[in-house]
């Protein structure tokens, strides 16, 4: 890898529902293999340690941030990094659908899912507590370069304010771990409506926010519901760099180049021209505050 590069691996897995030990062991093997192949960052799907449709199993599969399951995955990542999905229990016994950064001997919760879908197939708010912030995390690459990661877990990506707030914090790479089941059919070609929506969203966000984007969805079947995969990596111009994968286990690799980011932001200085002050003023007005947008 050249200076200013990040070697990314996206693992499209099928976690074992309710079996953290087996799912974590599968992840550890795959993460260690990707590290040996040269990955700086390995991304896994939402709730990759436990499966998705947990319901009353949530307290049973929950792990602590400093617990043996996550520290075992940190050992598998060695001196590099991996993002894994788990139900994490807080000290006051709240349970969060979380993205955890593991590696270099430690585990750190870097995002707690903010938007918990509770409609149709989904019932997350009944069992889980919502996060309350979107913050970027600095990731040190092997060449000393720092990459700023923004996290959106599945449903978070469907709320445009989430990636936009991350972009205001100088995000370089938007990572979206997902457990997205196939829903709806597109007329004509017979494709999944959920897949078409994700294709449109990921390209739009990557291009408008001029950032790299990785969408890492899971596969497999739980309670008769199929997860469609479709993992992909996009560049800051919206172009597809790797994927999409089909609806089976697999992995993607991509080399993210800092020069690509620079070229896109020179060509499209959209972040430079953002005016968050207008947003703040409009929100104050909508809440009944003083003054028109400035």
Summarize this structure briefly.
The protein is of the alpha/beta class. It has helices at 20-36, 58-61, 68-77, 124-127, 161-167, 193-208, 258-267, 276-286; strands spanning 5-12, 41-43, 81-89, 95-103, 106-112, 137-140, 146-151, 173-178, 212-217, 219-222, 225-228, 232-234, 240-242, 250-257.
Helix content: 25-40%
Termini gap: 46 Å
Principal-axis shape: globular
What would you say the CATH architecture is? Answer: 4-Layer Sandwich
The CATH class, by name, is Alpha Beta
Distinct helical segment count: 8
Approximately what portion of the residues adopt beta-strand conformation?
25-35%
Structural class: alpha/beta
List SSEs in N-to-C order: EHEHHEEEHEEHEHEEEEEEHH
Spatial sequence of strands, sheet with the most strands: 5-4-3-2-1-14
Low-confidence stretches: none
Rg value: 19 Å
Tell me about this structure.
The chain has 294 residues and is of the alpha/beta class. It has one domain: Carbon-nitrogen hydrolase (Nitrilase/N-carbamoyl-D-aminoacid amidohydrolase, 4-Layer Sandwich). It is 27% helix and 27% strand. It is built from 8 helices and 14 strands. It has helices spanning 20-36, 58-61, 68-77, 124-127, 161-167, 193-208, 258-267, 276-286; strands at 5-12, 41-43, 81-89, 95-103, 106-112, 137-140, 146-151, 173-178, 212-217, 219-222, 225-228, 232-234, 240-242, 250-257. The strands form 3 sheets. Strands 5-4-3-2-1-14 form a 6-stranded mixed β-sheet. Strands 6-7-8-9-12-13 form a 6-stranded mixed β-sheet, covered by helices on one side. A hairpin with a 2-residue loop joins strand 10 and strand 11.
